[in-house]
Amino acid sequence: MTQTNRQILLVEKPTGKLLPQNFKMAEAAIPEPKDGEVLVRVRYISLDAANRAWMHGATYRAAVEANTVMAGGGVAEVVSSNAPGFAPGDLVFGDTGWQEYAAVKAKTLVKVPHMEPMTHLLSVYGIAGLTAYFGLLEVGKPKSGDTVVVSAAAGSVGSIVGQIAKIKGCRVVGIAGGKDKCNWLVSELGFDAAVDYKSEPVFKALKAAAPNGIDVYFDNVGGDILEACLPQMNNGGRIACCGAVSQYDGAPSATGPRGVPGLIVVKRLIMQGFIVMDYYDQRQKAMADLQSWVKAGKLKVQEDIINGLENTPQALIGLLAGENRGKRMVKV
Amino acid sequence: MTQTNRQILLVEKPTGKLLPQNFKMAEAAIPEPKDGEVLVRVRYISLDAANRAWMHGATYRAAVEANTVMAGGGVAEVVSSNAPGFAPGDLVFGDTGWQEYAAVKAKTLVKVPHMEPMTHLLSVYGIAGLTAYFGLLEVGKPKSGDTVVVSAAAGSVGSIVGQIAKIKGCRVVGIAGGKDKCNWLVSELGFDAAVDYKSEPVFKALKAAAPNGIDVYFDNVGGDILEACLPQMNNGGRIACCGAVSQYDGAPSATGPRGVPGLIVVKRLIMQGFIVMDYYDQRQKAMADLQSWVKAGKLKVQEDIINGLENTPQALIGLLAGENRGKRMVKV
């Protein structure tokens, strides 16, 4: 066990696109857990578009500050505990930050079971899988036969949303960047169609892929793609607002999508934001469903694992550029 | 009884602001009701911001066309009937258009009771009152103690929304144009506060008037005022999208409100459009509630009645400019 704790600091908040120089490596002493804290060794760091949004502030958590360890969720192992209920060897999920060791308040940690592969705790059985599950089923509320469209469809959440929608008997159209991803969605994950926003005009391609209109749009991106979906929503359609990644990596947009609120009125749409934590009381049922689908081979788990703490900044920058397929994480 | 039917035609669809020259008076023969039709004499024509939206098309009804009688709802008396269930002397509500007589398909007409004053059939017991009732209670779903904000608050729908919200124990803030309207909302209708969007910066004035944030925003206007409300919504807040009058009288806006979908996600908002017809199965309960509140003096009915069919175009132009207080209609 090394005696130092390697960390990655956010040295300045980006104003435009996130850059490697916004971060730096640092070393610190391994912290002592205070009363009510647990010392953990971080095994995998979760990379999420939301990490970038936290830098703007005004999200569901406090803004990340310059010159501190970059915030981020991770799966970690308890090294020593100064809090009841946690013992060395326990596995936990929490906001460990981008570092090797962290002293974390026990009440912010969630105990998770040991499993093989451990990475599934961050993908299908982690926030990504639960976000897809609750966002689609509790917010989007698709019925069998509905047309479901999902953006960032090859990402950690989108790839699971589309597969759950297929399990529920829907026609599923994914929107993703690049032919490879689009082919993968259709041939590997069973989507009915995919729209490549990098090479096709989205509005027109969607019209062809969803000729009966859209009943449920699971929105991970906001911006132009939300604007392209709005006029194609069917009356009474539902838009599950999960994220707005098109808006995160730069200055906040000065405008919103055309058609709000006009189309929301005339089409009687429901547009609803959600945060996965709001549904944690139904977590057990969600886990049971996800596990049964994975076991039955109906839900394929795609992970994108990058080695080495030092590569975390580049891993996030790449994720914001749409490099990843499935759940991206860093093995520390 | 005159032998001619005076009518107002829409001679061209406006591209910018609606103007008197977009209309002209005409005369036609009184029509004969065909099989399944009813000949009615129009008594009162309802003026609504939606009339202007119909000229754009892409609403919940067919676009109004140039060189036809301008569409519009009205209360009318049956003159002769060629359809079962309707007899001379019956009172009906339907899309009679801007004219003295109309032959209307019976299945599009709703029979309404004779009452004094008859104008209440277009205000509190008409679409305005029902829109306020269902939009607030079924879409906005306010709880006692909630802060409810309503825009176009001195209008036909807004003035009723605010009063129902008070009846339900909410803190009510109205947004309206002009000091007179704002004073009237507070002193006559019992609103807790009012924001004059013509003389105050809306974001700041709202912050002062709704210091605990907004739980329910009943949106009649869209645009900048929706944008000002979004960041002040409380987590889990609900936006009832009733109309977007700020967007109707001119070319459709090329952008939407900033904060969509970002703030919808992080605040877990529900933004929901509705059309009053979707709730007609619950109409009896709504009518009973509205009548009991009017009788008890808890719900004041404000009407703005203009005389003469020939003044209908100017009445609509004035309504779009925010001239009216309460329900505007034309006595034919």
From TrEMBL, chains A, B:
SUPFAM superfamilies reported in the protein's UniProt record: GroES-like, NAD(P)-binding Rossmann-fold domains
Which Pfam families does this UniProt record tie to the protein?
ADH_N_2 (PF16884), ADH_zinc_N (PF00107)
Keywords from the named record: Oxidoreductase
Question: Locate the Enoyl reductase (ER) domain: which residues?
Answer: 18-330
Single GO MF annotation? oxidoreductase activity, acting on the CH-CH group of donors, NAD or NADP as acceptor
Question: Matching InterPro entries, A to Z?
Answer: ADH-like_C, ADH_N_2, ER, GroES-like_sf, MDR_fam, NAD(P)-bd_dom_sf
CDD domains assigned to the protein according to its UniProt record, in alphabetical order: PGDH
Determine if Iron is one of this entry's keywords: no
Q: What name has this protein been given in UniProt?
A: NADP-dependent oxidoreductase
What organism is recorded for this protein? Afipia massiliensis
